[in-house]
Amino acid sequence: MEDCIFCKIIKGELPSTKIYEDDDVLAFLDINPVSPGHTLVIPKEHYENFSATPNELLSKMMPIIDKISKAAEEGLGADGFNVALNNGQVAGQIIFHTHFHMIPRFKDDNLHLWPGKPYKEGEIEKVAEKIKNNL
């Protein structure tokens, strides 16, 4: 897509700090990181979101994310990491080109994840059934 910022990065029209690149995948540091080493891993071919991305490409991306996360733990002294993907605007997707976030985590970094709340009585079974019926 002509106006996609990630496509412009792939084409070299915008700068990036590359971490990894092959024929299908590019990984670069996020310019507004949650923590040092926050890396975006994207397919070089434009797909709007996770749901539109072919499974074979997603399968290729996961070992790359694993490799980068291990390198961040080793190289940055990270204590762990999060892998995240926002699929759709309501889920927080801002750039509509499939991308995973690999976010190094450090002890006492004060990054808090989503607040959880328990299901109401009998609700978990109903939710599970609705999902299973659509598999």
The total beta strand count reads 5
- State Rg: 17 Å
CATH class wording: Alpha Beta
Tell me the CATH superfamily.
Answer: HIT-like
Query: Overall mean pLDDT score?
Result: 96
- Uncertain runs: none
Total discrete domains: 1
Q: Spatial order of the strands in the main sheet?
A: 1-2-3-5-4
| SS summary, helix count | 3
Distance between the termini: 31 Å
What percent of residues are in strands?
Answer: 15-25%
What would you say the CATH architecture is?
A: 2-Layer Sandwich
Largest sheet: 5 strands, antiparallel
Secondary-structure-based class equals: alpha+beta
The amount of helix comes to 25-40%
Compressed to H and E, one letter per element, the order equals: HEEEHEEH
CATH topology: HIT family, subunit A
Report the principal-axis shape: globular
Relevant terms:
five-stranded antiparallel sheet, globular, alpha+beta, 5 strands, HIT family, subunit A, 135 residues
Task: Please characterize this protein's 3D structure.
With 135 residues, the protein is α+β, with helices and mostly antiparallel strands. The protein has a single domain, classed as HIT-like (HIT family, subunit A), CATH 3.30.428. The protein has helices at 5-11, 55-76, 123-132; strands at residues 18-21, 25-29, 39-43, 80-84, 100-105. Strands 1-2-3-5-4 form a 5-stranded antiparallel β-sheet, with helices on one face. A hairpin with a 3-residue loop joins β1 (18-21) and β2. The longest helix has 22 residues, at 55-76. The radius of gyration is 17 Å and the shape is globular. The model has no long low-confidence stretch (mean pLDDT 96).
